[in-house]
Amino acid sequence: MRTPIIAGNWKLNKTISESVALTTSLKASVADVNNVEIIVAPPFTALAAVNEVIAGSKIRLSAQDVYSEDSGAFTGEVSAPMLKDVGCEYVIIGHSERRQYFGETNESVNQKVKAALAHDLKPILCVGEQLQEREAGQTETIIEDHVTGGIAGLSSTELLSCVIAYEPVWAIGTGKTATPAQAQEVHSFIRGLLTKIYSADVASQLCIQYGGSVKPENASELMAQPDVDGALVGGASLEAESFAQIVKFG
Ligand code: PEP
Predict the structure, then answer these.
(1) Based on the number of CB atoms within 10 Å of its own CB, is 135 exposed (0-12), middle (13-18) or buried (19 or more)?
(2) Which of 57, 80, 83, 93 has the maximal Cβ count within 10 Å?
(3) Which ligand 1 atom sits closest to the C-alpha of 126?
(4) Ligand 1 center to residue 174 CA distance, Å?
């Protein structure tokens, strides 16, 4: 059985004090939750403070991006050893906003995935089609390109340290959620692809999250789909109450 993973991506939001307040409140709200992996991804500046608040709790820490080199003359970047040092266990890689606004490509995503794994950080690899790609019937082609590009060269053990997040770009921050059937169709396609590349056994163990306007009202029907193993949540993770309700989707 795959343990569901619910992750909150705070994006470019929350000062240190706001991050501490949100995490403190979330920690209390999810104290009685079992069998769900709960992750928060604050901005870089708040990672250390949030790590102190979650100490001894079930909440895990993630960064929102990482650079592929460990150190050197790369002004403005943050490396995998630095994220490990501040307490991160996970890192989001290849989010559609990084692909869209910061020129992230399958190649850079793959390098980042490998850098994260080399330092024992678990990548949350984001993949997803844009609206015009879906309307042109290209969803599977795009997803295959993002998945195979992102995981290129990984062993099955390395793959199983990753999480894949299917995030249709047209559903991110728009209030338009994929229907449970649409999500299931793509999740099942991804698992089929991994079965071909690795094996049915490996594919059956990998956690595939859905992301795109997940809210307390739609979380349980999405999570009820056989291949939907969790959620990557943006907007609704900025309030402890709504994120805790999603964590308690069952
Ligand atoms: C995201 O940032 O990954 C996301 C899914 O955002 P939202 O939940 O706001 O659509």
Answers:
(1) exposed
(2) 93
(3) 3
(4) 9
- Over residues 99-153, the pLDDT tens digits come to 999 999 999 999 999 999 999 999 999 999 999 999 999 999 999 999 999 999 9
CA of 199 to the centre of ligand 1 (A): 30
Cα angle for residues 29, 91, 25 (degrees, 5° grid): 15
Residues 165-216: pLDDT tens digits?
Answer: 999 999 998 988 899 999 999 999 999 999 999 999 999 999 999 999 999 9
129 is known as an active-site residue: no
CA distance 180 to 120: 33
Active site residue 167: yes
Partner residues linked to 123 by β-bridges: 91
